Amino acid sequence: MKLVYFAWVRERVGKTDEDVEVPEGIGTVVDLVRWLKSRGDEYEYAFENEGVVRAAIDHVHAKPEASIAGAREIAFFPPMTGG
Amino acid sequence: MRGGTAMARMISIQAEPFDVSAETAALTGGRADIGAVVAFTGLCRDEGGRLAALELEHYPGMAEAEIDRIAEQAEKRWPLLGLTVIHRFGRISPGEEIVLVLAASAHRLVAFEAASFMMDYLKTQAPFWKREHLKDGTTGAWVEAKEADDHAMARWA
Q: What integer pLDDT is reported at residue B5 of this predicted model?
């Protein structure tokens, strides 16, 4: 599964993207976030307030409880400030 | 595709500047059914002289897809005849344009409402992030999302 990061989430994680092997039992976006946070301080920092960081699954906005089964690309980013 | 009487949707995510008159002409050219075009242009402010530029980061692939989905919602909600959305990315100087929405319809109310809806959704749903570059040469903060923008979007629910 490919993970991509944008804006200050990207800066905190320290990379633009990565390929990860997600362990069994990680079924939702929030599961994935908690697993990432266990991988190092940079993830702990990026996701320190879980309610702030947004996610998208295969280019579609996703809620924390959304299933990640079959996802090719999951993105994490701050609330959007375009327009 | 332009022309005819079908709904004409054009979405572009680009680094280059755009020309509002040229885009309006492209939207209305060769048609006699459009009675109203509302144009909204968002510009980069200098924030009281503090800002040298804004840098806009976006999520390629999703930005186009999400704006397309927002446009589809607008087209379902209002009898639109045309919709043009251009959103720039990269470094943008104060005074330069960032975003363009053109909403075309037979009558003005639909065009005003659809353009307003598009902007409220673009601001809160389209994957773009602004960061400030300051006049003193330093890189400033990422612009924080405004609660007012969420409220503006919520009124369409």
A: 58
Whether residue B3 lies inside any domain: the answer is: no
Number of domains comprising chain B: 1
CATH number at residue B131: 3.90.1170.40
* B2 in any annotated domain: no
Q: Is A4 exposed, middle or buried (0-12, 13-18, 19+ CB in 10 A)?
A: buried
| Residue B51 covered by a domain | yes
The pLDDT tens digits for A59-68 are 999 999 999 9
Dihedral pair phi/psi, residue A28, rounded to 5° = -130, 175
Q: How confident is the model at residue B3 (pLDDT cuts 50, 70, 90)?
A: very low
Q: Does B75 fall in a domain?
A: yes
Q: Does A52 touch chain B (CB under 8 A)?
A: no
Contact yes or no for B65 and A60 at CB 8 A = yes
User: Is B57 close to A78, i.e. CB distance below 8 A?
Assistant: no
ipTM: 0.96
Structural domain of residue B117, as residue ranges? 8-154
Q: A13 vs chain B: nearest CA distance in angstroms?
A: 16
- The pLDDT value given to residue B53: 97
Q: What is the pLDDT at residue B136? A: 92
pTM reported for the whole predicted model: 0.94
Ordered structural domains, chain A, with CATH: 2-77 (3.10.20.30)
Nearest to B119 by CA among B90, B105, B98: B98
With a pLDDT cut of 70, the percent of chain B lying above it is 97
User: Could you give the maximum distance between any two Cα atoms of chain A, in Å?
Assistant: 39
Nearest alpha carbon to residue B2 among B32, B29, B39: B29
User: B-chain residues within 8 Å CB-CB of A61?
Assistant: 66, 125
